[in-house]
Amino acid sequence: MTDVLRRGRASLAFSFLVQGVAFALLVTRIPGIQNRYGVSDGMLPVFLAAVPILAGIGSVSTERLVRRVPPSRVLRWSQPVVLLALLAVGAGRQMVVLALALAAFGLAVGALDASMNMLGVSLQRAYGRSIMLSFHAAYSLGGIVGASLAWVGAHYGLALWVSYLPVVLVLLPAALVGSRWYVDGEAQAPVEKGAVAGGGLKWLLPLCLVMTVAYIGDSTVSNWSAKYLQDVLGSSEQMATVPYNVYMVTTLLGRTVGDMGVRRFGAVAVVRAGALVAAGGFAVVASAPGAWMGMLGFTLLGLGLCVLVPQTFAAAGRRADETGRAGASDAAVARLNVFNYVGFLIGSPLVGALGDAWSYRGAMLVPMVLVLVTLVHARSFAPGADRYGGGHERPRTADVGRSSNGL
Fold it and tell me: Where are the residues of the annotated region Disordered (predicted)?
């Protein structure tokens, strides 16, 4: 294993961590953002839906962009935009400022997520074993840091910009320095127009569905856990910031050991177990008599949902590689990443609409049923194509080795 690959893995993990911090600081302070800008409960779903729509546009644009420039360059410049947009959300006071800042955040996040996972898939190919969960574990660690900082801000009544400014001042230059060691795959010709890895999107559809369901669950926690604990289970605003933190802690734990689970038991078993645990978590949240039982439900959700997204990206990259078409892996990851935002787009308004029309407890049962759909499509993660989970053929490290330093 070369030093180039080790540095590339470390620098990419740091980018995942930075993104976890930024996203957690945004979503865990939604009540504070509402109060600062005077966003009504009726308007809140509109703002929450706009971000994933624009992120989807950013991801689709990245698929085209990486045909001309390496993913490392897209990641290098999209991450600072995300951080600056977060700061703008905290510093503004007029609704138009919030709209513009969230628009920039959404577009940049789409490019960032797609390029990060492209680099992660290509590094896993080079390592010859499952490491994708480790990158998403770094994201979870960042989420814990961000949620903790949000708790401090809410506890001491700090203005949003006061909470955000030190984070941006530290992480932005650090991310730019770390970007010198990103590692791209070998330069490849673009995929033929209208065909991703041969046969169009047909082979990718089960993975797209799993990605959508996983992010419906994740967005439910991200966007509604604080409001659910405060409005339904009667907690304080300070305590309402805790569920997302608990969720991220258990997500971190699950992802830290998840790669070992994939190597030992295979991706199919890990994905099935994750779906069952996540469904149990939603059941506990929906029936919780108080805040502490709700915490237990969010704990289970973190342990269950944590494996689904990284394994879905890994499976897409594997399947694309097996077709032998140049550039297919990046294209597949970019298109799969769109369904990340489809899940967010469906999940946030769905829970809000069901909560208003029915009850928020009942609304939690819908993602519980949806996540069980993963069981039907678990075979899409099966060995046979699972070289990295089953320990069979190891790809050559030469497949990935071009550092982004000096691009």
Answer: 387-407
- Spatial separation of the C-alpha atoms in residues 200 and 196, rounded to whole Å: 5
- What's this model's pTM, rounded to 2 decimal places? 0.83
CA-wise closest residue to 326 among 192, 182, 184: 192
In angstroms, rounded to a whole number, what is the distance separating the alpha carbons of residues 326 and 335? 16
The answer to whether 341 and 53 have CB atoms below 8 angstroms apart is: yes
User: Backbone phi, then psi, for 38, in 5-degree steps?
Assistant: 70, 35
Q: What is the mean pLDDT of the chain?
A: 85
The per-residue pLDDT for 194 is 47
pLDDT at 204 over 80: yes
Question: Are the C-beta atoms of 306 and 258 separated by less than 8 Å?
Answer: yes
Q: What is the pLDDT of residue 325?
A: 66
